[in-house]
Automatic annotation (TrEMBL):
Keywords: Membrane, Transmembrane, Transmembrane helix. The chain crosses the membrane at residues 66-85, 105-123. The keyword Transmembrane helix applies. This is Membrane protein.
Length: 240
């Protein structure tokens, strides 16, 4: 029998990994901004998991309410249509052209009922979409913040012959520390992608899925840039 835990991304391992990464960064860089970013990401990952559970409960409530309203609208429409048909045949117009306003009114009523049913049917999906897109927007913003942290960690700034200007917070980093810093950035970006993927587990909405895919592509592109820096840094350390 297949292991059902492998059929979807579970939130608990993602949260635990985010917490371990936060602690590792705190142990090595307790006073740097990357530690605060790790703390924010760990908290946001928990919120994404909680929002997913809350979103399911809210969606069930909204879905039940919308189905009840749909049933009510359809029943009212059927009863009203029945009275209209009975009245039309009881007081049938003598001229065939007099039926046109009645038919037009019936068609308009049917269109309004259909629109109401469609709107009520899509309400649970729109509520869930709004919740998930709010979290995905925060994750995307956090990915850019992580990218900003790695931008100033240039391997060439560690060369003795480097003539550029350095921020006071960067000059005290050794090549080994810069490598750790960059590796932590890639791990944080990976967690951002996993947290976004948790949103995809709770929705089949095209807008949500496209946003998740955009964030995953964004974080992978950022990670590639960071790994290029790590590769250059390692080459600099190997070369005499």
């Amino acid at each position: 029998m297949p292991d059902r835990t492998l059929e979807k991304l579970e939130p608990v391992p993602v949260i635990e990994t985010a917490h371990r990464l936060r602690d590792r960064i705190g142990a090595r860089f307790p006073d740097r901004g990357i530690h605060r970013v790790a703390q924010e990401l760990a908290a946001l990952t928990e919120q994404v998991a909680d929002t997913s559970a809350d979103s399911r409960r809210r969606s069930r409530l909204v879905r039940g309410g919308s189905h009840g309203l749909i049933t009510l609208v359809v029943l009212v429409a059927v009863v009203a249509f029945g009275f209209a048909v009975d009245s039309a045949f009881t007081e049938a117009p003598d001229n065939g052209l007099d039926w046109l306003p009645l038919i037009e009114s019936a068609v308009n009523d049917l269109v309004f009922v259909a629109v109401a049913v469609v709107v009520l049917h899509s309400l649970p999906q729109r509520v869930q979409r709004s919740d998930l897109l709010t979290k995905l927007h925060r994750l995307r913003s956090l990915a850019h913040i992580i990218d900003m942290h790695q931008l100033t960690k240039e391997p060439e700034s560690l060369r003795d012959a480097f003539a550029g200007s350095l921020d006071d917070h960067d000059v005290d980093l050794t090549p080994e520390q810069v490598e750790y810093y960059l590796e932590y950035c890639t791990e944080l970006l990976s967690i951002v992608g996993k947290a976004a993927a948790l949103c995809a587990e709770e929705s089949q909405d095209d807008i949500v899925l496209n946003t998740v895919s955009t964030i995953e592509t964004l974080t992978m592109g950022m990670s590639r840039k960071v790994w290029q820096k790590i590769s250059v840094l390692n080459d600099e350390r190997v070369d005499p």
